[in-house]
Amino acid sequence: MADVVLSGLTKSYGTTRALTDMTMTIEDGSFVVLLGPTGAGKTTTLRLIAGLDRPDQGDIRIEGRSVLSDTPAQRDVAMVFQQYSLYPHLTVRENLAFPLRSPVLNWSEPDIARKIGEVAEVLRISHKLDNKATQLSGGEMQRVSIGRALVRSPRIYLMDEPLSSLDAKLRADLRIELKRIHAELGATFLYVTHDQIEAMTMASHVGVLDQGRLVQFGTPRDIYENP
Ligand code: ADP
Ligand code: ADP
């Protein structure tokens, strides 16, 4: 079971306390939204799980095993950022192939082509594979950057406000798409936002963070009924 268990995570940056005694279980296959205002510690939580930062105290277990001494590459997680982080002058196909061309992975070209075909279908961008990234709309660019995480097929996806740079209509469309993708992959999503609507419409569980502390955890209904 690819549960992610956070226990007693505490992190300071210099004199700023970003996270205090954060304890939470993200169940395998769930869609957990971390909700809270700017500065609440949401991004810090993702960075600790991804291995981009180390906690001062506490532990992170994935599938029952502490991952604190694992490098980011050794953890079965992928991070999707708010910015598109695409190579603008490469095609969609090349952008999606990029994470798979690492020599460490040793993927064959036919395997890469097959994987890109699958991911493009899930994201509904098959017809754009030969377009340059600069020729895409905002929603398409965000799909491709989600695609760059999907090609590696990790069990766990960490998403940092991936829809915040889009307009309201696209955000609404992609909320539905993300729920569908989550169901289709059967993967674990941990999704950070300050947008209550995103939390209420997408989450199986919502964790509310305030000033570095987890102040509530429950289903969207629990949170809605006990604000
Ligand atoms: P959120 O994602 O909820 O907006 P963050 O996790 O980014 O919150 O930040 C939590 C707190 O930690 C904020 O006060 C922020 O300014 C501080 N912080 C985060 N990263 C750093 C850093 N690298 N250096 C200094 N302070 C940081
Ligand atoms: P968010 O948009 O999720 O609130 P932030 O803008 O807080 O994200 O953080 C973006 C990046 O900047 C993160 O890597 C975070 O660790 C870093 N960061 C955040 N606050 C500070 C800060 N006060 N000083 C230095 N780095 C920071």
TrEMBL record:
Full-length numbering of the shown residues: 1 to 227 of 330
Organism this protein belongs to: Fuscovulum ytuae
Entry keywords, A to Z: ATP-binding, Nucleotide-binding, Transport
Biological classification of the source: Bacteria, Pseudomonadati, Pseudomonadota, Alphaproteobacteria, Rhodobacterales
Stated family: Belongs to the ABC transporter superfamily.
Residue span(s) of domain ABC transporter: 4-227
GO MF annotation, one: ATP binding
Protein name according to UniProt: ABC transporter ATP-binding protein
